[in-house]
Amino acid sequence: MTSLQTLAAILGLSTVSGINLYLTVLLVGLGQRLGWIHGLPPDLAVLSHPLVLGAAGLLFLLEFLADKVPFVTPIWDGIHTFIRPAGGALLALGAAADLHPAARALAALAGGTIALSTHGSKMGLRLLAHAAPEPASHSAISVAEDVGVVALLALAYSHPALALGALAAILLATALLLPLLWRSLVLALHGCRSALRALAGTNSRPEPVPWVELTALEWSPLSGGTSLALPCFARRVKGVPRFQPAYLALMGGQWHLIYRRWFRIRCLPFEGGPVRMFPGLPWDRVVFFREGKPHLLLLGREWRRAFQDETGAQG
């Protein structure tokens, strides 16, 4: 393999391993066994062994089915948070078999990191898709991911220069979307916790948060702090990133949104009380007005009673 082919193989295998590790192993193994792929390093020859192909095929089938069920997908992806990066590191190490030992170590580190980033992007995009839980959308995303894996592997083998350009674009897009994907992951984890607490009948008022109380005193010294501060997420608030963690705080009879961004604490006042509340699980959607426009917040169901006690808001 030339240097360009080796680099394309390392980056390509690492990237697609974070999307679908078992399909990657199955395609590379079948390609070697059927004579479609030639000239790969000896360390990757083990992928063409019948036992490896059988295991990869079975696991790919399980993943294909799990990807079609919206509520199973997050669990499956969560389990593979450790498996896919490890697989990406091993495949990158195998692709770099002809390189210096130091270069092989760097390839393994890069492979694991890239696989972890694409895996995290996949999880984040799936969680965003769960906001609109039509089965067709989940199936379409899953099929598109599998097609992308096949296309990238074929491109990396036949046209490594083009593959490097495509991989660079994917990694750049991943880096740009990473903040949103991270916030969506945090939202999903908090949503699971909120749903479990709500189903368990936990409806107590949240404990005061020191930095929120200090912000309230700085913003409105005469208010004496907050009478209630509920954890929430911004769904559609002007000037606030989507899914930004925040606190809905009641200070001196007025509701405010308090959140941290870029190492600064920000406080946005709302005009009056909530206009409407739409109950749901795990999130209640609450609408406030600010600057004459509606803004949408996501409030954990576990805090519904505390919120309604203060506002009397009904769905």
Q: Give the number of helices.
A: 10
What is the structural class?
A: alpha+beta
**Content of β-strand:** 15-25%
The average pLDDT is 85
Written account of the structure:
This protein is of the alpha+beta class and 315 residues long. It folds into 2 domains: 3-195, no CATH class; 210-311, PH-domain like, CATH 2.30.29.30. 56% of the residues lie in helices and 16% in strands. It has 10 helices and 7 strands. It has a 7-stranded antiparallel beta sheet. A hairpin with a 2-residue loop joins strand 2 (244-251) and strand 3. The radius of gyration is 24 Å and the shape is elongated. The chain starts with a helix and ends with a helix.
Provide the descriptors you would attach to this structure in a database record:
single chain, 315 residues, 2 domains, 7 strands, 56% helix
